[in-house]
Amino acid sequence: MIITISGKAGSGKSTVARELAKQLKLKHYSIGDLMRQMAKERNISLLELGKAAEKDKSIDKELDERQIKLGKGENNFVIDGRLTAHFIPNADIKVFLECEDRVRAERILKDERKDEKSKDMNGVISKIRERESSERKRYKQYYGIDYYDEEMYNLVIDTTKLNVKEVVDRITGNMGRRK
Question: pTM to 2 decimals?
Answer without folding.
Answer: 0.85
